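Notes from the 1:1 (GR / supervisor)

We went over the backlog. Supervisor wanted to see one worked example end to end before approving the batch request, so GR pasted a single chain during the call. The sequence is below; no edits were made to it. Supervisor asked that the structure be written out right there so they could see what the output format looks like.
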Amino acid sequence: MSKPEIILLGAGGHCRACIDVIEIENRYRIAGLVDRDECKSLAGYDQIGTDDQLGDLRQNYTWALITVGQIKTAEIRQRLFAMLKRLDFSIPVIKSPRAYVSRTATIGEGTIVMHDTIINAGANIGQNCIINTKALVEHDALVGDHCHISTGAIVNGHAEIGSGTFVGSNATCVNGATIPPNSFVKAGRLERGE
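Structure output shown during the call:
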């Protein structure tokens, strides 16, 4: 049986990392890239359209994933997610086989779990998130929609990360911390929250 085709929205550096995870997970065949600019090719995949052509692409493709990165703001990823939902695309959860995800954790659609990540018991990850390489989301933590938990970041038990938040590389959110929506936690920071 052939694998379903998926299109990737965004053709930058984060997309390159997502391609690696998708290829290793081996559940989807990448049909091509979609980007706001024209004439892109990345990691052996060609651009098949622009953001403005997503409606037309929906006639041929069911599955899509947002592969735009997120640092300063979640705005672009939120806009693209809303567009995909409006066009009735299916947006999968992508998990690296090198990640550990507890059977009691939940992960929302459109989230990608990168290599060597750990998502522990009872953790709840929202929609359209990036849980990046070697991140740790501990037991009973809550990560809202459209968040990026960056490389090597730690979200300790019972912490709550508000929607749209960026947690930088090697930052640590302490046990029970509450981080407001749309926050920016700098790399290496110890965050106690509210």
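Supervisor's comment: Helices lie at 13-25, 54-57, 75-86.
Batch request approved.
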